[in-house]
Design goal:
The complex is a heterodimer of chains A (424) and B (257). Chain A has 424 residues and is mostly helical. Chain A is built from 18 helices and two strands. Chain A has a two-stranded antiparallel ribbon. In chain B, strand 4 and strand 5 form a beta hairpin. The chains are: A mainly alpha (424), B alpha+beta (257). Chains A and B meet through helix 7 and helix 10 of A and helix 1, strand 2, helix 3, helix 4 and strand 6 of B.
Chain lengths: 424, 257
Amino acid sequence: MKLLFKTIRETVRDNIRTPWGIWLAVLSSFLLMALIAGLSVFWFGLSITNLTDLVPWGLWITIDLSSIAVSAGAFSLCAGVYLFGLKRYAPIARTATFVGLIGYTMAMLALILDIGRPDRFWKSLVYWNTHSLLWEVTMCVMLYLTVLLFETMPILASFEWLRKKYPRIAEKMESVHHYAPVLAIIGLGLSSLHQSSLGAVYGVIKARPIWYKPEMAVMFMFSAIVGGIALTLLASMLSARLTPKAKVNDMLVERVAQFLGYMMIGYLYFRLWDWLAQTYTYEPGRTEAFELLTKGTLSFNFWFGEIIFGALLPTFILLYKPTRLSPFWRMLGLAMIVGGVIAFRFDTNLVGFLAVISYLPGKAMISYTHYTPSLVEWASGLGIIAYGLLAFSIGVKYLRVVDHRITSEEHETVNVTSGEAVQA
Amino acid sequence: MTENNVSRRDFIKLSAVGLAVAAGVRTITKVEASEGAKGEHQWVMVIDQSKCTGCNQCNQVCHAHNDINPDLEWNKVLNAGEIDGKIVYLPRPCMQCEHAPCVEVCPVGASYYRDDGIVMMDYDKCIGCRYCMVACPYDARSFNWEAFTGENPAVPEWGEPEVERRPRGVPEKCSFCYNRIDRGMAVGLVPGVDAEATPACCVACPTGARAFGDLNDPNSNVSQILRQHPSYRLRENLGTNPRVYYLPVTDNRIVEG
């Protein structure tokens, strides 16, 4: 025990003044805060949040939806690499898979906080209401988390300590990569189902007309793919700039970024029609909620967060060659897309609650409510994000999660070095 | 390249299997869904708005009999506007919808239908995700944001608790006092006729604004009222088919009343 403390003390002393040590210290303080906040939520109950009967879903559900959305790079890039044969992008898919695993565990943490009876979490797996979209999402998320665990096994196997201490286990874990195409198929199926269903969770609620539309599923799916790819590229580029442990092949990243730019045009197309359709005819509840979004309390989020900085500008940045080639502008564009997807999730969730439709007879009356996350919600929410950053940082440092050189031998693809012509 | 082809073929095969399974599951749930709410009795409540004075006594007995936290309400009494300077009230219990959005969305099946149409809550199964509250068009569910531990201020003045208190972290709602119906019928009483077998709010209403009974019985009180008077239900356009009917205030009935 004494020895352990000594080692810890020495490690802390050696690292505290390095950027890595400071980064860890910052994240740890957020985690500590979240731990206190989380425990107080479990102890005192959800009454210490600002959630109400009128706004029963708030910041945590946004974190939940967003972290699942920005994990979508895993299935879309794995599908691209293993099903559509774009093998040279395998190293990016590797990063995306790891980001996905982190994202889904973040969502689990947010959910555990959010449900009123975290002690009964297991019941969602035992008792099935197959009619419920939330049931479908739960099943798919659990199954897909399992798939992600298998997909990340070769990555986890590159942990030095494991390789030295249990070489046979590491070897077994690494051999899982032979099943990458099969896992990619299952992942594609499960992800397509639940990414869309998360939108449909809102889209089937007839009582709240701003949500009640079939395109909710489509837009959630579409925004998840762009957000997921964007976060994967951003995380790769950022780590390559911050640590020598991460190495990116900029040509690969740039190509995917261009593809992402075209995807964004598709996304904007859906959003445009969705927006236009809402402006026609008066429908009680829907019109008021839409006005909250475009003119009211959520309008700043909507216009700047979702549309201008979240979609229009980054599309331009990623499609205009000079800005796409500049690492700074490209990273900025990618960050904007991620922010846009999060803003979309936040606004979509909240707008359905803020305009309250009266059930009294006669002319429809709309009243308005409000919601600002409480300190406890923020503290625990930021802690979940800190956990994600910490897990990714550890992955970059010890598991070579962002390393565009190693995958050639791991996944038996062609060797690619930057600037070299590729023959797939 | 060959490996690639195999995976594509596998993909198609897997998709086919997946679709077949999904289709199978769909058929099964459809069969279950079509069975729902077709029992011998179909309990409905009729609330006469011209008789309701907004005294809130229904709400008080509801709190006592169901041991409800004073911060929560199963049976809100709302001000629904004015006619000729007189305030019109609208008491709102759970609508016990035939096509209840809360039952449809509950991931664990904690909300479910009884054969007599009552929408039930299994408070032991509920995980507290609150999707039912999001889906309910009538705001009929209240969440236990904190545990109700103190004394119930409605007891004993308005009655004695007949059901268990709900724990923290689950939403709760009106159950048409299913416990009174079941206990009453077990000893041969008729809900809607005998007070012991009728929801507490209907028994307590001092003006008799609430009627309760079996819609399957053409001679029941409620069947007769609904035949003789125009009635409406809340947000009928949603297709939920509520089991709570309202008799609107009409000018001549106000004069009568």
